[in-house]
Request: fold
Amino acid sequence: MSTQQQEPEEAPETDPEAAEVPPESHEMKAQSSPQQARLQRKQDGLAARERAADETELEGDTVHIKVFRYDPEVEAKQEPRFDDFYVPYTRGMTVLDALIYARDEFDPSLTFRHSCRQAICGSDAFFVNGSQRLGCKTQLSELSQPVRIEPLPHQEVVKDLVVDMEHFYDQMHSVEPYFQQEDLPAGELAEQRQTRENREKVKMSTRCIWCAACMSSCNIAAGDNQYLGPAAINKAYRFAMDEREDEEIKEHRLRIIEQEHGVWRCQTQFSCTEVCPKDIPLTEHIQELKREAVKKNLKFW
Amino acid sequence: MYEHDVIVVGAGGAGLRAAIAAHEAGADVAMVTKLHPVRSHTGAAEGGINAALREGDDWELHAYDTMKGSDYLGDAPAIETLAKDAPKDTITLEHWGMPFSREEDGTVSQRPFGGLSFPRTTYAGAETGHHLLHVLYEQVVKRGIQVYDEWYVMNLAVSDEPDPNDRTCHGVVAYDVQSGAVEGFKANRGVILATGGPGQAFDHTTNAVSCTGDGHAIAYRAGVPLEDMEFVQFHPTTLPSTGVLISEGVRGEGGILYNNEGERFMFEHGYANNAGELASRDVVSRAELTEVNEGRGVEDEYVHLDMRHLGAERIVDRLENILHLAEDFEGVDGLVEPMPVKPGQHYEMGGIETDENGETCITGLYAAGECACVSVHGANRLGGNALPELVVFGKRAGYHAAGKDLGEAQIETGYREGVEEEDMELPIAPGETGLAETGDDAVADGGQLADTDGVLEGAVETERKRVEYLMERDEGIQHAEIRSKLQQAMTADVNVFRNEDGIKRALRVIRECREEYRDVYVADPSRTFNTDLQMTYETRNLIDVAETIALGALVRNEFRGAHWRQENQIRDDENWLKHTLISWNGGKPSIWYRPVILEGEDKTYEPKIRSY
Ligand SMILES: Cc1cc2nc3c(=O)[nH]c(=O)nc-3n(C[C@H](O)[C@H](O)[C@H](O)COP(=O)(O)OP(=O)(O)OC[C@H]3O[C@@H](n4cnc5c(N)ncnc54)[C@H](O)[C@@H]3O)c2cc1C
Ligand code: SF4
Ligand code: FES
Reply:
């Protein structure tokens, strides 16, 4: 299956270490601390917005994107490289729009996943100017140029911006990601009751679109191939906190996430929370599950 | 070669529900899908799922609303099945853990939606489709159903008897997007197409890039009629720059439409004096375009949708997702300013002709979901009626393909002697694309193949050759160029306003696209994740689908539901209470009709004026 660590000779550019070296842009320098990175990104965004005040400044211009290229099968692309594309800017243009333009107008072999164009299918998480973002949800006007677009770090590159998602899916599946309540109200039209408060509690956790941005941003996941990772733990949270499942099922779920490669691995670095395009408070959810696990264990003492 | 009892093509809401049902009925089922299931476009549905769950509501009211909404072009047996099964199939989702929004007493919430006589649109925030898709996928994982994800289905393996009604489907041919390997998938009991909508036939659409009508096209070329394709729903509230949809939920909660003069035009210009903003989609879409055409549009392009008066708390509570969409994709803060909106292609009411059990006229071939036409939506789909269709008819197709007895279907399928045929002279010769050099689809050219494996092997061989041919050429025309020409022609002339000259113009462009497609080539030389090849396949499908939409629009000279014709702006029940069917046999499409079924189980629906 997939190797968690990027083979260095395959794609040196996506190595986070390497990303820190060339201080071409603020985003990359700021990799050192996630909080700093986030602040920096905000500032950059603001600055870029100011620069492009009413965006008319970019209007009519071309945007310079640098896109990671690699194809194990094509001789000229076996050695990873960056290609430069200059794309005419139109108002509201996103990173994904720029990639589509580059593919349709310049190079039909440019390869990336995408589908919905509206941040719901989770296909197009890339490493954009040094952080994990959805291409379709990232406005070019907020980025400093050249815009550097790479595949998600810590995942095997299949081709260009396409990474192998198999490992991510395996982790998602490993937390038994399905409702397990068997004891249902009698009658096919009888619904289970759920309080508004409880639905509100799980609401954010149910928003995950499986984009793998969080997993890719996580240092722990990079070092421990078996670590469940933020998205899978969040999936477990979604069920463990849902009052429609019985207490025993919840305990079963807590046992899964407190295993060796589970919640206790998390060192609360917040990188997942920062990159999540759905604003899911991942680190908080992980912390809460740690507390729940402790509570459960105390009960059995 | 892979082998299963039932092969489900597509893993959106309809495909997932079909797979679960087939599995429940004891079949060995596998899903073959070009996207990983959770990437399917069902995830984009926002508003909700209609089901009569509460006191004061019942399935008969739901059926009545649906029939009226369909402008009397839905078939009563299909509509009644939908309305009857929706409640239990919706509650099944709840039992599987779907996070529906809740009332004070803990029951699932429902909201009003356009064209409904009772607030029966059951919802989960503004992300109903996302939750529905994920809950169904969870159940597929739970059951250990095999999913071949990122496998692109290129064609069906269908035997080639002269009459499509005598043919049998034995499986599909697909290629593994990651490796490029072309393989056969043998289906011992049945193939279920659940490939979603064909919105990419237009250039302004709420549909995903993957919505390319593949299932429509491969079924059509195998001899299954496409039904009522001219009925394309344009959603009145999409963001102008991307086509991203702003849910009807906004209007359901009380959002108001204004023109550039600040007039609430739905009332002030008399488009819908009772329902106003909640009138059905075609009515609102045409109203908006009329405003724009008459010079009352904002920036001559769109109108405003205002929800500020609802108050921040209510907006954040019920429509938070909308705030994100407007901000991320249009740069507008819906709490402080009105949102720009215009009509965009949204839903294809027509599709692969099936009966209530999901079966087509080809034995062993089924269709469900947006790619199918049972027909529930007739000339116009009501908001919130597609999601129940996915679960109700997805489930039925799954059961039936797995061998469960659902009783005999009342809807007839397939071309029969004696049906009413259309003899209008067409401006172009439709059909017959394909790459002459490699032979057309397996059905047209395969020669009589005796045994099952032979049909499948023949189909696999044909596709391998086609890939070889496309990849070996190193010059010609690119799919992207053809696709964009096609999309622009459809948006320009087969839009919410249609007339004969425009449609003929579009048909001529479609024909040009076909001719150009003979010269298409794939530039990317790699077998690994070759999206160039995939999109080249998809573009061919779009040409076939676009042509059926335009042909249907040309022959139907009346105004019904989403289809408006300048030359005859009335609903002409005397001549047009019938479905348009287009079937392709031996490379040439023919157009014919079948009367609509208005006789329900114990009542007949009388066509009434559709006023709101
Ligand atoms: C933005 C938006 C909002 C909507 N809101 C609502 C709503 O609130 N309520 C409502 O009732 N309806 C709504 N609809 C309509 C409804 O969501 C769709 O009609 C429905 O989800 C379609 O589901 P499906 O399962 O048929 O197809 P999809 O979910 O589109 O799935 C298609 C599947 O087919 C696969 N596929 C396609 N081609 C191939 C191929 N060649 N080989 C292999 N696999 C293939 C894809 O991978 C995918 O898995 C909305 C639609 C849109 C676009
Ligand atoms: S938790 Fe957020 S970042 Fe992680 S996969 Fe889900 S949506 Fe993506
Ligand atoms: S394209 Fe679907 S999330 Fe970006």
